[in-house]
Amino acid sequence: MCERRTIEGVAAPLPIGNLDTDQIMPKQFLRGIDKAGLDQGLLYDLRFDAAREPRSDCVLNRAEYAGCRVLIGGENFGCGSSREHAVWGLCSMESGRSWLPASARYSIPTAMNNLLLLATVPQAAVDNLLLDVANPLTNWVSIDIRDRTIRSRNHHAQFQPFTQTPPAVC
Predict the structure, then answer these.
(1) What single DSSP character describes residue 83?
(2) Sequence ranges of the domains in the chain
């Protein structure tokens, strides 16, 4: 039985379709076989420009999303290879965050072995959640693991855990 029933926190909208594991954890951060420093590489090319300066247009660099624990991703988030480093980055302990994509496509064994919650959320529900979390005044979500629900200020969605490896269409 699951000891922790709910996960709550600031959620960030990341409505990028087909965001693959190479984008989640770029190759330059795959130097080791441990998890050290992977929080720095997570979504690096989205967060930083070529001069290594934070991109002002990236939601994850905005103060109102500091401490973000949940990502509301676009369709097919996490497609591509089963790059374990991408999952490790999402589960990073160094950052104090436990990124939780609300819409994800990952290798089931890789995610489960690293305690990354994967959930299937209907696209219409994801779209509604994205509307709420795009507003810094309503960017808080609560995920009830036992009841399989995600709640934002104005929306509620049921989710199903992945039971088989979903197809990657990247």
Answers:
(1) -
(2) 6-161
